[in-house]
Amino acid sequence: MKIAYIGSRKAGPESIAKINAYLDKLRADDDTEIEIVTGGAFGADTAGMKYAQENDLKLTVYCPGGTHNSRYCSWLEKNMMKAQIFHTGLPFLKRNTLIVRDADLVVVTDYGNGTIDAITKALNMKKKVVCAGCYIKGNYFKKTPKGMEQI
Length: 151
Fold this sequence. Notes:
Blueprint: E1 2-6, H1 13-30, E2 35-38, H2 44-54, E3 58-64, H3 70-79, E4 83-90, H4 92-102, E5 105-108, H5 113-124, E6 128-131, E7 149-150
Parallel strand pairs: 1-2, 1-5, 2-3, 3-4, 5-6, 6-7
């Protein structure tokens, strides 16, 4: 099962811990092979990459352009055999589409307006979205879409 691990760059440790516990339970209950799909940014994306690394899971990363978290993405590419790192150079809205398109399930930590774009895309694709966090207000208010399961 491919799981998109998404959220804010400012995701808090509590929401990350809840998502990680949810994934632990899912892995134990289903005995299913899990692959993490994420966007390679700081915050929630990094938490997803670390979760995959620490649990020896497959990992797909659609990296942002420039130097944003490029050191960790490059390290994973060289040192983690189960990692596929795509240096897309794409902005987050386009990477969001790739991430949720590839996922069977979407898990969300604390989130902001950029993550709401990914959540909306996932719900429009009829994908299950599980959230363990809350909205972090940005420069403008964006309404959270209905349909997420809150844990």
